[in-house]
Design brief:
heterodimer; A: 176 residues; mainly alpha; Arc Repressor Mutant, subunit A; 8 helices; B: 247 residues; alpha/beta; 6-stranded mixed sheet; 4-stranded antiparallel sheet; 10 strands; globular; disordered N terminus; disordered C terminus
Chain lengths: 176, 247
């Protein structure tokens, strides 16, 4: 997740104070990981320095920074580029799973046991996300769907790998 | 309590124990054991040909095991004759399959009322219940339609209503969303799980789809005709740590 580009995107929607930006960011993109205030103001400062946003005069009121920020043409162009660029499809989403299976086989440990506990952990998380979907808002549902489809892809990989363990073991050579 | 009753797992409503079943020379189940508690939603997963559907059919009294036992409410049901098992399926069990369970020439309401009429419920009461289920499953407008005219998702919701109408203790669902797209699947599973929880109905759900299985309280895997319980990662880690300490 690119915090600067996301904040710029929110600024394109409407000029905003740092506090409101943080609140909006957290409600859409930082549900599991809220953005620290310090990071918001540091990012806004960099965006201003780079000419992608401008800060208005300080307004009277409580709080550390009462400046209203607005996006510039340069900032808008950057958001536009970012949104029209596909994210690079990641060919090795779960390299840790892969590494654990291969190492287990190399070291003569039970890769099947590892895959079983990984499957159980994935299913448990899928149950939690399914419950979020059943009881959450449309935004929660969208996020849960994203997680569920990725977990499902991992599970398919786990099942196919479990079926191929003998072949894989011959290939990597188990420790005697 | 008789010795036979003592043999079943405590708290469970339905249980298969060491069930063996072959078709000709081909073994499908090689000593499969699984139990579901009252109100539990249990997913049975496994690869194609692993024996998961055969296990469901044995638990539901559709197939008679070659050996092993099936218990329901403290009684062995695998020993019952065909007539008694048919009666049990009609009164205590409900079924949702992937295809071909509705009578296409009958209306939606007729299909839902059918199991009630077979259970000798009065016609007026059966159709009132059918209307009520149609409303509950968001199908109130479709009561007069022939089921052959429905979409896949609508047809599965009618199948759900038909399975639930006699208020069974256990719903057996074999790949209930197998022919549906993702959104229709979710809709069917939301309804099945929501109503089962409200009614306290046990659900035994066979699926190869992890997203469908994630609606269940618990899942088991069938591999080569045997049930393997999932390992708890926390327990497994503890066991591993214990083994290392002990070694």
């Amino acid at each position: 997740m690119s915090v600067p580009l996301t904040l710029l995107g929110l600024l394109e929607r409407e000029p905003s104070h740092g506090y409101d930006l943080k609140r909006e960011y957290d409600s859409y993109f930082g549900r599991d990981k809220p953005l620290p205030f310090g990071q918001v103001y540091a990012t806004l400062s960099r965006l201003t320095r780079d000419g992608k946003a401008i800060a208005g005069d300080a307004e009277p009121g409580a709080g550390p920074d009462r400046k209203r920020y607005a996006i510039t043409e340069l900032g808008t162009a950057e958001v536009d580029d970012w949104l029209s660029e596909p994210v690079q499809p990641e060919p090795h989403l779960q390299t840790v799973l892969f590494a654990k299976v291969v190492l287990s086989l190399m070291l003569g440990r039970s890769a099947e046991h590892y895959l079983d506990i990984q499957r159980t952990a994935h299913m448990r998380r899928m149950r939690e996300l399914t419950e979020v979907k059943r009881s959450g808002s449309p935004v929660d549902m969208l996020l849960a769907d994203h997680g569920l489809f990725h977990l499902e892809a991992d599970l398919r990989w786990i099942d196919v790998t479990a079926a191929r363990l003998n072949t894989l073991a011959e290939m990597v050579g188990t420790q005697s | 309590m008789s010795s036979a009753e003592q043999s079943r797992s405590p708290g469970c409503l339905i249980e298969a124990r060491d069930v063996v079943k072959s078709f000709g020379q081909t073994p499908a189940l090689r000593g499969a054991s699984v139990a579901a508690a009252g109100g539990e939603i249990l997913a049975i997963m496994g690869p194609s040909g692993s024996g998961k559907s055969t296990l469901l059919h044995c638990m539901a009294g559709i197939f008679k095991p070659d050996s092993g036992e099936v218990w329901f409410e403290g009684r062995r049901i695998d020993e019952l004759g065909e007539t008694r098992r048919t009666e049990l399926r009609r009164t205590a069990f409900g079924f949702v399959f992937q295809f071909g369970q509705l009578v296409p020439e009958l209306s939606t309401a007729d299909n839902i009322a059918l199991p009630l009429l077979l259970n000798r419920v009065r016609r007026k009461t059966a159709y009132q219940a059918a209307d009520s289920w149609l409303t509950r499953l968001g199908l109130a407008e479709l009561g007069g339609r022939r089921t052959g005219e429905l979409s896949g998702g609508q047809a599965q919701r009618v199948a759900l209503a038909r399975a639930l109408a006699p208020r069974p203790k256990v719903i057996f669902a074999d790949e209930p969303t197998g022919s549906l797209d993702s959104l229709a699947s979710e809709n069917v599973m939301d309804l099945l799980v929501g109503i089962a929880r409200e009614e306290g109905t046990t659900v035994v759900l066979v699926t190869h789809d992890a997203r469908v299985a994630a609606y269940a309280d618990r899942e088991v895997m069938v591999r080569d005709g045997k049930v393997t319980s999932p390992l708890d990662p926390v327990e497994a880690a503890g066991r591993h740590a214990g083994a290392e300490v002990g070694s």
